[in-house]
Amino acid sequence: MAETEIPVLIVGGGGCGLSASVFLSDQGVDHLLVERHPDTSSLPKAHYLNQRTMEIFRQHGLVEDVLAEAAPLEKFGKVRWQTTLAGDGPLDRRLIHEMDAFGGGGLRERYAAAGPVLPAKLPQIWLEPILRRHAERRNPGRILFGRELIGFSDEGDHVVAQVREMETGRVDTIRARYLLGADGGRMVGPAAGIELQGPPGEVNTTTVYFSADLSQWWEEGTLITHFLSPEDPDLSCNLIEMGPSWGKDCEQWALHFAPGPPGRWNAETVVPRIRELLGLPDLEVTVHKVTDWVVHSLLADRYRAGRVLIAGDAAHRQPPAVGLGLNTGIQDAHNLAWKLAAVLDGRAGDGLLDTYEAERRPVGRENVDWAVSAAVHHQALLDAVGVGHRVPAGIRRRRLEAYFDPSPLGETVRARAREMFHTHRGGCQALDMEIGFHYEEGALVPDGSRPPARAPMRDVHRPTTRPGHRLPHAWIERDGRRLSTLDLAGPTRFALITGPEGTPWCRAAERMAEKFSVPVATARIGDGADYADADGGWAAVREIADAGAILVRPDQHVAWRSPGGDAEPEQTLAEVFTALLDR
Predict the structure, then answer these.
(1) DSSP assignment, residue 74?
(2) How far is CA 68 from each of CA 53, 120, 244, 245, 557, rounded to the nearest angstrom?
(3) Both 455 and 528 in a single domain?
(4) Which residues lie below 8 Å from residue 411, measured CB to CB, with a gap of 6+?
(5) Which residues of the chain carry a pLDDT beneath 50?
(6) CA separation (Å) from 371 to 367, 368, 428, 433, 458?
(7) Does residue 146 sit in the same domain as residue 220?
(8) If both were cysteines, with which of 59, 65, 524, 558 could 529 make a disulfide (CB 3.0 to 4.6 Å apart)?
(9) Do 448 and 344 lie in a common domain?
(10) Quick check: helix, strand or coil at residue 552?
(11) Biggest alpha carbon distance in the chain?
(12) What total of structural domains would you count in the chain?
């Protein structure tokens, strides 16, 4: 039996755990990751990388590799509802509705204005190998697949864990100052006494992962295509491209059938159903996997228990609607990494880690609830149109015939449906859910202001420099180089942003960096300052005067701001850093 001492032990090598490893490596934190499976995911699973996640990948040097394999926005920026993919019947190949989604089409300008990088589509089966390569490159010999955590104990000032090598059965002991559970809630959370709470999962979903050539019939540019059978409610499902090529060249697909009993189909019996659903009786289909899984809406009662912290699916599980699951997990890891680094090297007190739960658990709550609401609403929308899962076959056909009726009454039916479909923007145009989440308490100094009102459908994002919010993006320039304001912070440094008259704040920040051993970049933005406001975007969102200041954390969230100057900027910043770092 070997024994290893390490500052952080990560359990789980999925998207969340591997991202946490990359982020910790960039912070200079020595750590070990163990994953019981021999390799990364063999199933596509999550596939949408939202705008905030892509900003985080950009900060950590991942975005170019992700974009090299991901579908560009023009390949997935719509959601469609239709009857079949092919066929020559009166209700075959009929488009019920389509709408721009996730930054595509008419939404692109709005998303492009909100951040320096757009969303992308890359299923976990292709994303995780990229994350693993980066994790191994930045932390050689410390990313161990085929290793299973079999037990651990929290000894107060460290955790003692037992890890078994799956191939040989050898058990090693790991002593770590902190343990991060990114194992989907399989072991770490329950063993630490953390409970996932919520209603019991009741809706079973069957996912079929298969290969087929659909190039002749496929309408490219869609993230999700919902097929709504005129005859069989059991054949209403959604089809999603899973790459590795995109659009008409896509080779692999995922079909999600819900609801329905587990075990209803296997790799052989599902093939005729796929052909019937798509209207392609002779389609060659290779089924890779048929899985049944239950849709949950669960949230952990806490994110920390002593020396144990949890993230990702170990902390929250929700329906796949809105694509918040994996994105929330990666954002958990991003929030936690800089805090672990600060505590481990003595720059901050252990209390800084308590702010992880204070900040991220309310976001987890909101995201779980929003995903549930969007999923329920989509079902209600289909019921209203007349093609929900509870609508029997005969009625379904009559409803669809009425929908496509060319008469004036048919146009009224379609107009009513368009009004209903427009409300689905809360599910696929929710930009404010992607980048508008914020923290009301935690590692921040409130300034007494109230957050901007949020659009009920979360389809409008209102940027703000209020403490706790993500720093607004604006393009700035220096020496001919174009940057985003988000580039000023992190991953290992704070940023102090001021107006042209903020020199006293900048000087005070330089002294605080030395006093607290915290890297702080300073940036004056505006006429005659260090950085030019490239197109006036920063002036529109900064919410401070020329002598004011904004302190931004390494994770690009605002920690504190002053609307104007201060007679004693050094003392003020000393109080701010003392509060932020639990000093």
Answers:
(1) G
(2) 16, 10, 11, 11, 28
(3) yes
(4) none
(5) none
(6) 6, 5, 11, 10, 12
(7) no
(8) 524
(9) no
(10) strand
(11) 79
(12) 3
Mean pLDDT of the chain: 95
Output the pLDDT for position 260. Answer: 83
In tens, the pLDDT along 202-222 reads 788 999 999 999 999 999 999
According to the model, what pLDDT value does residue 392 have?
Answer: 83
Residues whose CB falls within 8 Å of the CB of residue 276, separated by 6 or more in sequence, listed in order? 232, 235
Burial-class residue 309 by CB neighbours within 10 Å (0-12, 13-18, 19+).
Answer: buried
So what's the pLDDT on residue 1? 54
Domain encompassing residue 184: 3-70+123-198+297-366
**352/495 same-domain check:** no
For residue 189 the two structure tokens come to 């959370």
Please provide residue 132's backbone torsions phi and psi, each rounded to the nearest 5 degrees. Answer: -65, -45
- Whether residue 194 sits in one domain with residue 340: yes
**Are 20 and 116 in a shared domain?**
no
Domain final residue, candidates 425, 444, 468: 425
Per-residue model confidence (pLDDT) at position 184: 95
Planar angle of CA 365, 332, 457, nearest 5 degrees? 45
Q: Residue 336 falls within a domain, yes or no?
A: yes
Which of 326, 350, 366 represents a domain boundary (last residue)? 366
Determine the Cα–Cα distance for residues 260 and 548; give it in Å rounded to an integer: 58
Which H or E element spans position 52? helix 51-59
Residue pair 252/209 in contact (Cβ under 8 Å)? The answer is yes
* DSSP secondary structure string for all residues of 431-495: HHHHH--B-SSSSS---SPPPPPPPTTS--------TTBBPPP-EEEETTEEEEGGGGS-SS-EE
Give the integer Cα–Cα distance in Å for 57 and 54: 5
Beta-carbon count within 10 A of 278 CB: 23
Where do we find the tokens 């075990």?
Answer: 263
H or E element, residue 421:
helix 408-422
Q: What is the DSSP letter of 225?
A: E
Reading the block at residue 49, the tokens are 């990388």
Of 451, 387, 384, nearest to 422 by C-alpha is 384
Q: What's the pLDDT tens digit per position in 543-570?
A: 999 999 999 999 999 999 999 999 999 9
- Cβ atoms of residues 34 and 200 within 8 Å: no
DSSP letter assigned to residue 399: H
